[in-house]
Amino acid sequence: MVWSARPILNFYASRETAERAAHTFERDLAGYGLLSPEAEKYLNLKIHQIQPLEYFTVGPYSVMAFPANHAPGMGAMLYAIEAGGRALFYGTDTGTLFEQTWEALRHHRMRFNVVILDHTYGPEQSGTDHLSAYQVIEHIARMRSEGLLRPDARVFATHIAHEGNPAHPDLLAFAWLYGYEVAHDGLVVTI
């Protein structure tokens, strides 16, 4: 097989995430470093190290990464993605957004058509390393009050855990009452 004829897989990650992926790759899979030029050539891979709160482009998309409030020291990120006047915020696998994220969203005058938020914990649980149902509701209210959501914006909950969240039909009814939707496998959203 000719690897050069295949499209390159671009991997965007913080330094910490890239280093952790490289360590895991070397330890568990290949026995050689993922961050080496040889690995990039053999795997047809290009690793791009990104910084939080800085824009970067991926094809037609303008992207800004934000630090996730999850797994300190791992470099986990959340993303605002914009193209053609439409914008998405991908905020999953995180606890409450850091204040610096809120400040950056306001500073850059971001307005989202779609927001995807972590919803690991249900209405009867408090969130710490992940958001709970009521923290999702608080985030949506703050986004609305700070003008971060367009009038027709849709907000989706994802990363739903079994513990603490009600059965799917009940969670759908709960979410509807509070103005958001519950994502599901196979969901396709046009932005």
Describe this structure in words.
With 191 residues, this protein is an alpha/beta fold. The chain folds into 2 domains: 1-49, no CATH class; 51-182, 4-Layer Sandwich (Metallo-beta-lactamase, Chain A). The protein is built from 5 helices and 9 strands. The protein has a 7-stranded mixed β-sheet. It has a two-stranded parallel sheet with strand order 1-2. The relative contact order is 0.11. The model has no long low-confidence stretch (mean pLDDT 92).
Q: What would a concise description of this structure say?
A:
With 191 residues, this protein is of the alpha/beta class.
Q: How far is the N terminus from the C terminus?
A: 37 Å
Number of domains: 2
The strand line-up of the biggest sheet is 3-4-5-6-7-8-9
Indicate the structural class. Answer: alpha/beta
Low-confidence stretches: none
> What is the CATH T-level topology of the largest domain?
Metallo-beta-lactamase, Chain A
Topology as a string of helices (H) and strands (E):
EHHEEEEEHEHEHE
Could you tell me the radius of gyration in angstroms?
A: 18 Å
The H-level CATH homologous superfamily of the largest domain, spelled out, is Ribonuclease Z/Hydroxyacylglutathione hydrolase-like
- Given the structure, what is the number of helices? 5
CATH domain class name of the largest domain: Alpha Beta
Described by the principal axes of the CA atoms, the overall outline is globular
What's the multimeric state?
single chain
